[in-house]
Amino acid sequence: MADEDALTTRTELAIRRVCEIDETVDLPPHAPLWEMGMDSLRLVELVTVLEDELDFFFPNEYLTGDTFATVESTLAIVRRFAK
After folding, report:
1. Whole-model pTM?
2. Which of the four, 36, 59, 74, 80, has the lowest number of CB atoms within 10 Å?
3. pLDDT at residue 82 above 90?
4. Could you tell me if 27 and 12 are in contact, meaning their C-beta atoms sit under 8 angstroms apart?
């Protein structure tokens, strides 16, 4: 399994980059990403970035808005499938 801290850092950086969230802005675990600029196009971009950078693929059945609703839910799915 990949280092938990590294997964968290890389996932949060990907979310910040895709949603254009400055590093000085707090990224609360339970805050809805949709309120931070996430939309369907950015969701596709986030999935692509995470898959490329962490070298794994999300199964299609997990590619839903609920899976990527918050930082915490996104981290949960990354931890589940990242090696």
Report:
1. 0.90
2. 59
3. no
4. yes
